[in-house]
Amino acid sequence: MLAKRIQNLHPYVPGEQPKDREYIKLNANENPYPPHKSVAEALSKAALASTAKIGLYPDPDSNELRSAIADMLNSTGGVFYTSDVSGQKCSPSSRDKIPFEVTPDMIFCGNGSDEVLSFVFYTFFDGDRPLVMPEFTYSFYPVYCGYYGIPMCTVPLKSDWQLDKDAMLSAANKTDSAIIFANPNAPTGISIPRDEVRKMIEKAPKDKVFIVDEAYCDFGGESCIPLLAEFKNLVIVRTFSKSLSFAGMRLGYVVASPELVKSIFMVKNSFNHFPVDFMAQTAGIASCKAAYYYAENSRKIVEQRESFTKFLRDRGFFVIDSKTNFVFAKKDGLTGESIYQAVKKEGILIRHFSTKGIEDFVRITIGTEEQMDALKKIMGNL
Ligand SMILES: *Cc1c(COP(=O)(O)O)cnc(C)c1O
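A: This is the predicted complex of the input protein with pyridoxal-5'-phosphate.
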């Protein structure tokens, strides 16, 4: 009964969402802070005062939302952590100011960045050449390669867990291939500066897209949005799930040239006209307008990340410098699984991977101060 093409599927395995007891969840890189209260207000108003809209199809192209996202990017520079907050307004830091105006025609919205990535893979990749990516990066990329029949070329990280930029470039140039990675990368947390990405794009195939997934950029990485002025083949994928406390609503987007965005629209309109429902568009618009609140939350998370990193290092853990809302850590003599189990027993969920090469590590999402204090009590004894 089943189509042959599904025989080679290897579905993505998300962090567990257990129902058996109340855990502190530090295993899925969700944001520990609730959405801004204006988001709940917008949702209840939409449900109660605009009930009729629920029976109508939403704007298929999310136009008002795309405008709100463009405004948010222009006012924050694409990095909440570094943006200057004054009252309820954000302005970009001098480091991150975008040297042009991001316009709504440079934005494409989808039902979570996982779906956006799926559209992007379908739009830009064929089965005729491999897609180049790091060996350890967001594990949905290999899943989509299997789904769409796109061959992969995975390039090992360097011994210090940094991307091997030269090896990725030479692999891409050998087969005239596209490149994808997350920056900051997952699950390592390492960020590479914009200037280094610029040098990579300069040396990468010009007639193929170059994709940077900025899911974690708001926690202190450097966004590549400014580079869109220089490169027509750059595609940036971002999500509301992490820095905008929106994982349960599903909203992700692309920032790229209007030409590339148009091509992604064509694919979207051949699959599902309405990937972003009316409620998600409404809540998304309200979120963008409260950027200052999320910028403050990002700062709290970064502060906890730095304090937690120091705590673990003082107790003999190896912790990679992170520019995300999680840390990737290990300790000699312990496996990732044993750390995970010890912490779970005490009511906190973190994530470990059975993938060879990273099986000793745990990935810990940064929570509130209270949550991190609870975790420190447990991990301080390991
Ligand atoms: C979480 C994550 C995503 C997916 O985000 P959603 O918008 O929730 O689908 C994409 N890329 C990376 C690197 C992520 O960590």
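The mean pLDDT is 96. The first helix runs from residue 37 to 48.
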